[in-house]
Amino acid sequence: MKKMLKNQKGFSLVELLIVIAIMGILAALAFGMFAGVFTSSQRRSDEKTAGQIAKAISAYMVETSDMTLGKIGVTSGGKSSDLIVALQKKVEIDGKSYGPYLVPPEGVTASYDNYKPQWDGHEGYEITVYSALGKADVKPTDDKDKVNVTVKNDDVGKVGEGAKGEGAEGEGAEGGGGD
């Protein structure tokens, strides 16, 4: 038996091929898992960015008392990209300077590209502004027809899905939008 072990030096070609095949299978599985994690992180990033945009809109509305966004040139039915760019710039209202509410990266000018969705499946943001509440709902959307701004002036208490204050119709701002 000792003679047989002394004569064998190294691995056979079949053994090396089996190890290489197993490593290839493991690499393919790992690549698939990492691609899923990457896509998931892009989707979550878009949702976080939507939250930042919603907070910026609310801050603008409260600070400037411009509940319909008309003073920055945004109208209901307008493109959400125009609102996102407007929130990255300082705005002058009645001789007073406000903003910016979304801060572009240092050295970069205000542009929709600073806040555009990262995931390829999202076309842009659907923005619904509830002017009576001083609140905005922003959602990444995959529907090109929904990439716009909707301003609702009379929907007190009727906030988006999952928001606080549902069912508080007619009670003013009480009970609504306590984020």
β-strand amount: 5-15%
Rg from alpha-carbon coordinates: 27 Å
* Low-confidence sequence ranges: 156-179
Main sheet, how many strands, which sense, barrel? 3 strands, mixed
Shape: elongated
Mean pLDDT: 83
Count of the separate structural domains: 1
Q: In total, how many beta strands?
A: 5
Structural class: alpha+beta
Residues in helix, %:
25-40%
What is the string of helix and strand elements?
HHHEEEEE
Distance between the first and last residues' Cα: 77 Å
Biggest sheet strand order reads: 4-3-5
Number of helices: 3
Task: Sum this structure up briefly.
With 179 residues, this protein is of the alpha+beta class.
Structure characterization notes:
With 179 residues, this protein is an alpha+beta fold. The chain has one domain. Helix content is 36%, strand content 13%. The strands form 2 sheets. A 3-stranded mixed beta sheet has the order 4-3-5. A hairpin with a 2-residue loop joins strand 1 and strand 2 (96-98). The relative contact order is 0.13. The model is unreliable at 156-179 (pLDDT under 50).
